[in-house]
Design a protein that fits this description.
Layout: H1 6-29, H2 42-56, H3 58-83, E1 102-106, H4 115-134, E2 140-144, H5 148-157, E3 167-169, H6 174-177, E4 183-186, E5 202-206, H7 217-225, E6 228-230, H8 234-237, E7 238-239, H9 248-261, H10 264-271, E8 279-280, H11 281-298, H12 306-312, H13 319-328
Helix pairs in contact: 2-11, 4-5, 4-9, 9-10
Length: 339
């Protein structure tokens, strides 16, 4: 080999050697089969299984909402056809049958909430009022212990509340307005499961947005006052992807929906926001074993934050739920289905 070719040969050799070293480093950095696949914790496994269940039930929830909208649209059309004489251009309102059931939002927790949570409670009450006004079977709506921060916030931001119709807004405590034997406080800490709604009773929902700070408070209050208590039969029909804590308006709307359909499962799946990851209880068992195997294969070595995954899949299928979800997705209440 000539002296002229020697430098070029050495340079080529060095380049080849560097490429070989780089390829070796890249190869060594790749996880080998059976290595680098860290075991997934039980907590991660449960979240992955619930996520998969939530995705599988998306279409079911969407279909139920579509069916409800179609049913109500058909009812309106039938009503208009039966009542219209051909000249009436006004929209005919559905036949409304007022329920004798009394539904009370207990606002006696005013001093336990900061202003931010008071504002959230105000929005939830506004939604309850609106839903009751348009319901097919509206309830006798009571707002008790109304005062303090809540009243001040309503005076400043919603002055029209003084003209609300079909609602009893009282500064007195509910125990001063309703006979004790007629009261039933809704709290998930109660051992009593509510099977049916008794329309002669008055059901109390705790008006508390507390972010899980006051566990069992509504149950304690019911016990202290010697009031009957019960929890909605959520666990009998629904398996949820998150806590059983629902906002005031969710509980209110579930009861309105049940009065219309007389079907707890339909009421839960119609009202519960998708971020709750609700699935029928009879479908969770049959898919759990299959999911646990497939998740291990697909998610091996994954250490992503499941809370971010949950946030990314909280897409609502209707504008109504999107608005409701935005209002309540950070809220937890001490009522109805509290801790």
């Amino acid at each position: 080999m000539s002296s002229e070719m020697l430098p070029a040969f050495i340079e080529t050799s060095n380049v080849d050697k560097k490429q070989g070293i780089n390829e070796h480093q890249e190869e060594s950095q790749k996880p080998r089969l059976g290595e680098g696949c860290e075991p997934i914790s039980k907590r991660q496994m449960k979240k992955l299984i619930k996520q998969k269940q939530w995705e599988e039930q998306r279409e079911l929830r969407k279909q139920k909402r579509k069916e409800k909208r179609k049913r109500k649209k058909l009812e309106r059309q039938c009503q208009m056809e039966s009542n219209s004489d051909g000249n009436d251009r006004k929209r005919v309102r559905r036949d409304v049958v007022h329920s004798t059931l009394r539904l009370i939002i207990d606002c006696s927790f005013d001093d336990l909430m900061v202003l931010k949570d008071i504002k959230k409670l105000h929005k939830q009450i506004q939604r309850c009022y609106a839903e009751n006004r348009r319901a097919l079977h509206p309830v006798q709506f009571y707002l008790t212990s109304h005062g303090g921060q809540l009243k001040k916030n309503m005076d400043e931001n919603d002055k029209g509340w003084v003209n609300w119709k079909d609602i009893h807004i009282k500064p007195e405590h509910y125990s001063e307005l309703i006979k004790k034997e007629d009261l039933i406080y809704l709290t998930s800490d109660s051992p009593n499961i509510l099977k049916e709604l008794d329309e002669s009773k008055a059901y109390v929902i705790g008006g508390l947005v507390d972010h899980n700070h006051h566990k069992g408070l509504t149950y304690k209050q019911a016990s202290d006052y010697g009031i009957n208590h019960a929890q909605l039969p959520l666990g009998n029909f629904v398996k949820m992807n998150s806590r059983k804590v629902l906002a005031v308006n969710h509980v209110f709307e579930i009861i309105l929906e049940y009065l219309e359909t007389r079907d707890w499962q339909e009421a839960f799946f119609t009202i519960l926001p998708q971020r709750k990851g609700a699935v029928p209880t009879d479908k969770t068992c049959e898919s759990a074993s299959h999911d646990s195997q497939s998740v291990r294969m697909e998610e091996c070595g994954s250490d992503s934050d499941s809370s971010e995954e949950e946030d990314s899949r909280n897409e609502l299928d209707s504008p109504r739920e999107e608005k409701q979800d935005k209002e309540n997705h950070t809220e937890s209440t001490g009522n109805s289905l509290p801790h």
